[in-house]
Amino acid sequence: MKTTNILGTSFGLVLIAASIAMTGCASTQSSALGLHTKAHSAGGVQVQAVQLAKTSDGLLVSGSVGRLVGYGNSPYHHLDVEIVAASGAVLAHKATSFSPNPIRHSPRVRSHSKYAVKFPELPPTGSVVRVTVHPTLLSACQN
Ligand SMILES: [Zn+2]
Question: What span, in angstroms and rounded, lies between the C-alpha atoms of 111 and 104?
């Protein structure tokens, strides 16, 4: 596991360095649960944080999103949160909104919105929790 983690982290850092803030990929690991997290920003929405917590009834995925240049034209987005096994198979998927939506704009404060979604089972060790910005209305999500 350690070797894979190191490679994954390096790859994520390269992606961060190579991408402009508009659209980026970030990859980190949550060693406590043996899970990785991945965040895909799009459409002027940046996934700022992906936090994992084990609860009495499964896994809680939460975090925050912020707005980037380009957000103003398309304020309706939601997040697709997926559990991806080490084999690449998608084990679970949930679409969720963030609040407040649209993300507030403040010239003084770096405002952000929050999201949280629960999965009924703790994913197997080595799984990836992937949070992707889906630039459409939640009600229009076909996933
Ligand atoms: Zn979606």
Answer: 6
